[in-house]
Amino acid sequence: DRMKARKVVLFPTPGAGHLVAMVELAKQILHHSGHTLSITILQIHPPSTSPLNSSNTSTHVQAVAASGLDINFVDLPPSDYDPEGEGLMQTLSYIESQKPALSRTLTSISAVTTVSAIVLDMFCIGVAGVPAELGIPTYVLYTSGAAMLATFLYLPTLDMKYDRDFRELKELIHIPGRSPVPASAMPIPLQEKKSPSYQWFIRAAELYSKLDGLLVNTFEGLQPTPIKALTDGLCTPGSRTPPIYPVGPLLGLRPESPEHDCIKWLDRQPHASVVFMCFGSMGAFSPEQIAEIADGLERSGQRFLWSIRIRPSGASQFSEPEDVDPREVLPEGFLERTKEKGLVWPRWAPQVGILSHPAVGGFVSHCGWNSTLESVWFGVPMISWPLYAEQSMNAYELVNDLGLSLGVLMKEEGGGLVKGEELDKAVRSLMEGQEGKKVREKMKEAKNMARKAVEEGGSSYSALASLVQKWTKGH
Questions:
Q1: pLDDT along the chain (475 residues), means of 10
Q2: Which of 10, 108, 30, 26 is nearest to 63 (CA)?
Q3: Which family is this protein grouped under (predicted)?
């Protein structure tokens, strides 16, 4: 056995955001191990109706597979299981249906190499029993931040404390490591105790206590308070918190082509003058909301680059956003009136290339965690406009705890329109006001800390190095 090569197996959730961080982790493990560890990334192919079945993901995989690193992708044979429910629950039950396939695959990999560890994505926790039975040390990569992890691990405690649903509570919820949050900001899947998603998160929190460790896509300097609350065990009273390893920011920063039209347009704009608006791989708006955004941008008089995606009225929130002809959805004359100031981009936009561009001075974002970390990495101050998943929690933290973002006022969680005048006010405040200046300064500090964290000797670099050393030695 001593002669067998060592391997780390990674098991991501399908879906662009989750895969990017996992692939980045793979590259860093190879680097830290001096290439003595090899990596296998297991892939599952969810039903075609799943929100996670995005075309973005497969191109990313191909790019990595072609990059000559010691990372191989292994497809788990598709199960004939037909998952119930929609959206997140459908994906979670599909992942859990993969246990037999996972067991067979890990057994056959173990026959030829020593599997030093398996790292599961946060949503793959339901299969954690499989590697544990095979004696493989089991870790989770948590692809959101430390404050969200604190919230999730504290959920069983909150469950005992409140006998009513979060959506019925009018009070602030106290969670270790973060300032109190309004119950309405709790993620939609947790709003209702009887819902299958709520039940799943309660079970998952218990499974986390058995893990060998938790890797979190964040860094000490960004979230010191929740990281300390986690490390001190405050989030799991009466239970075990596994060792916490903040190893972020894990970002897939592939350079975009300088030939892209968005980049060429930015090249012609003054330094830090452009507000970039983009809402993630699933973010799209109704025609009514698009009209309000147009009104707000025009009123603000600021330069803007707006990546606009639309979801037809009545389509499921999990359906892929569609590319649009902007003339069909924008107020009449808007494009003509703003052509000196703005670019409306009606397709997917090269976010990394845009955020890294010196002409960009602000980012109106849905506050998905990957987008948040990219904004921090490039030091672009934010305006939070959360749409789904845990984004309201992220937005609340960015505005109130970290001071890295201004907020637009949401009327009712998941409901009301954001009015043009609110957007106008937020954009002007960010680009010209005193509040904006404070956020800009804070963001500059965060950017410097992010870069230090991943340099040799930095906090995230060292956390991952200590873990990889364990895996190379094999305990």
A1: 83 82 94 93 76 57 69 86 77 92 97 96 97 98 97 98 96 97 92 96 97 98 98 97 98 81 96 94 80 96 92 64 80 95 90 96 95 97 90 94 88 69 96 97 98 98 97 81
A2: 26
A3: Belongs to the UDP-glycosyltransferase family.
Q: Is-catalytic flag, 18?
A: yes
Asked, colleague to colleague, whether 6-252+453-473 and 261-451 share their fold, the answer is yes
Burial (CB count <10 Å: 0-12, 13-18, 19+), residue 17: buried
> Which H or E run contains 275?
strand 274-278
Long-range CB contacts (within 8 A, 24+) of 153-161: 153/205, 153/208, 153/230, 153/235, 153/236, 153/241, 154/235, 154/236, 155/190, 155/201, 155/202, 155/205, 156/202, 156/205, 156/206, 156/239, 157/235, 157/236, 157/237, 159/193, 159/202
Q: What is the pLDDT of residue 348?
A: 79
> 6-252+453-473: what CATH class?
alpha beta
pLDDT at 3: 66
Cα angle 96, 100, 106; round to 5:
105
412 residue type, one letter: E
CATH C-level class of 261-451? alpha beta
Nearest CA-CA partner of 144 in 453, 372, 435, 405? 372
Domain ranges of the chain: 6-252+453-473, 261-451
Regarding pTM above 0.90, the answer is yes
Task: Determine the pLDDT at residue 159.
Answer: 98
* Active-site option among 18, 32, 357, 366: 18
Per annotation, catalytic residue among 32, 121, 212, 424:
121
Structure tokens at 457: 């000797």
Question: What type of residue sits at position 85?
Answer: G
